[in-house]
Amino acid sequence: MESPSTTLALPPILNQSTVPNLIRGGAFALAQSERLVCVKGDDLQQCDGAGVAFLWTLQQSVVAAGGRIVWQAFPEHVAKQLAVYDAACAAAATDPEAQGRVALRENAITALGRQTWMLFSGLGEAIAFLGEVLFRLPFVFSKHFRSGDALSAFVRCGAEAVPVVGLIGFLLGLILAFQSAVPLQMFGAEGFVGGLVGIALVRELGLIITAILMAGRTASAFAAELGTMKVNEEIDALETMGISPVRFLVLPRIVAGTLALPILSLFATAAGLVGGWLVMHILGFSASYFVDQLQSFVSLKDLIGSECKAVVFGFTVATVGCWFGLKAGRDASAVGTATTAAVVTGIVLLATLEGIFSVIFYAMGW
Predict the structure, then answer these.
(1) Which of 20, 154, 288, 298 keeps 20 to 30 A from 87, CA to CA?
(2) In terms of DSSP H, where are the helices of the chain?
(3) Burial of 240 (C-beta count, 10 Å sphere; 0-12/13-18/19+)
(4) What is the pLDDT of residues 232-243, one digit of tens each?
């Protein structure tokens, strides 16, 4: 035989203002302590979503405690709303998405909006980071600048890259000379191979290949180093001590990358010219003839323009690597993701900047 019922009388208005009063009055505790609960709705005139949610939660609480709930003199519209809640709960119990067994489906409009928001949000953060870097650049000339770290980074991204850059540059000049010699021989113009190789290497290819190699070596290294510091909470420690990570960690690396790329591009160009000279020697031309071709086709402004681009490219590659390192997540996979993103983004930006510089130099007559 069931224990005597407990009656819970509802107020005339059941909404988000009155529901908290019922909860504070012990409605749920009372419902869970009795086997039979009678809820009276004689005076209930108005009930919003919060009120229906309260009634449905009360019902679930009584059932979970092993009791039974009785609705007495309830308005018809409230009963219908409770039935909708029950139907939704039953549907959710058999829905794989609601149970977390499959990923929630996302319509195309929602996905497009989310991706657009992420794109502009990331762009705003990147612009803010670039602004902070430029704001702190004068610190490079202060006595507190960490020149030792800058020198160490320069050795790693500059001096240690000379062998691979020289090898790639030499092979590039060799291949370019051989590939251009074949069609030029059809017109008896193989003597211009030296000039073609020289102007291609000095103006474009020597710098581009070096910048891409630097994006693969340096940007990834910077992103991995700073990302690992983020995982180990070293960057959080710096911020706790009031030390700016940009000033302490980023500036030395950016300075090193900005100075290293122009020098590396010279090495790559020189190695490529040696490869071109070797092909010219095989074709029967003297070294002096090759030098004359270079002087005829390559001017000082070509070299100056290439070095100006190298400074911008070096700054871009180093900044991108540091940026993705600082925004990495807190686990090992996040560091790998940041490293990959730094390389891909760096290469895309290099191609974009190269196109911009090409238009500018064309307009200037270079």
Answers:
(1) 20
(2) 19-24, 27-33, 49-64, 76-93, 108-136, 147-157, 162-185, 193-200, 206-214, 220-231, 234-240, 245, 251-282, 287-297, 300-326, 332-364
(3) exposed
(4) 888 888 888 888
Radius of gyration of the chain (CA): 35
Contact 342, 220 (CB under 8 A): yes
Domains, the chain, ordered by start: 6-93 (3.30.750.24), 135-364 (no CATH)
Separation of alpha carbons 103 and 99, rounded Å:
10
- Alpha-carbon span 317 to 311, nearest angstrom: 10
Tokens of 41: 């709705």
CA-closest candidate to residue 324, choices 218, 214, 209: 218
pTM listed for this prediction: 0.68
Q: Which two tokens stand for residue 300?
A: 């000082």
DSSP structure string for 210-274: HHHHHIIIIIHHHHHHHHHHHHTTHHHHHHHTT--HIIIIIHHHHHHHHHHHHHHHHHHHHHHHH
Give me 303's structure tokens.
């070299």
Query: Would you state the pLDDT for residue 364?
Result: 85
Phi-psi region of 218 (alpha: psi -120 to 50; beta: other; left: phi over 0): alpha
Q: Measuring CA to CA, how many Å separate 76 from each of 13, 14, 49?
A: 15, 15, 15
- Tokens linked to 188: 């008896």
- In angstroms, the CA 338 to CA 324 distance is 5
Between CA 347 and CA 349, with CA 348 as vertex, the angle to 5 degrees is 90
Q: How far is CA 123 from CA 79, 80, 102, 118, 127, in A?
A: 51, 49, 32, 8, 6
Tokens of 315: 């700054």
List, for residues 285-327, the tens digit of each pLDDT value: 888 988 988 888 888 888 999 999 999 999 999 999 999 999 8
